[in-house]
Amino acid sequence: MATSTKPKEERQENEPSRNGDARMTFTAHLGELRNRMLYSMAVLILFFFVCYAFSDHIVKAIASPLLDSSAPAGETAVAPEVPEADDGVLAETAESAEQEPRQVEWVTLTPFENFFVKLRFSAYGALVIAFPFIIYQICAFVFPGLKPREKKIVQFALYGCAALSVAGAAVAFFLVIPTVLQYLMQFTLPFVNPQFRLSETLSVILRLVLVFALVFQFPMAVLVLVYMGLLTPEALKRNRRVAIVGMFVVGALLTPPDPLTMLLMALPMLLLYEFSILVSYVVVRRKEKAQADA
Length: 294
What we know:
By secondary structure, the protein is mainly alpha-helical. Helices cover 78% and strands 2% of the residues.
């Protein structure tokens, strides 16, 4: 009798154990997700304090496209005094003011503005520096549930998006912003002393950099749609005119209200569109070859 009841008792003990293992597996996944979120937050906070220690250098680096036109440190750009008596001196002074390069004075309007600017851009800097680590934590949590082919696709998308984001940010920071500044400064009247408010000006710079980084993701979006079969290279070529009009509309909506900035955004989008058509043909051919081999 003991031998006949033992297997039954073992089965009864093993069934809750298997259910408990399933619950523990789900709980372990939640615990792993919590741990990875805590790691990401800890790294983000750590980099925030590091960036705040170097916040002066970060703010100066972000403002560097405009510092060439600004007044030297510790000096204030003052409009030239114009004598009232002699008309000849008046004309000569006005002419010399027009010929001199315009100097820009950086200003803050409240005592707290400098502090909040440092806090804000320290947070932005920490997010940029910690972003690769955060992406790694997300991938380490998600990748075990993916197939090898799906892992390759996700890795390709991540590397492609990262490269295009850096390219877009570099185009905006080193090409678009300095060019637009020189263009806009030409409209400054001779008797006007330009002043840049620190918080608003730096926010405009970051907004332009972010917009260009997002716009440069267009080829990756096209490749994903082509790979999923929702878009074809022929459709891209057929709708080229409509796409060009849409690019200029997007450039007008996402950039400051001047034609040069809109043009400088639309032209890279046009080049990326043509590049997407070429790469989409490669994606379609590889997909067809893989299906044929299968």
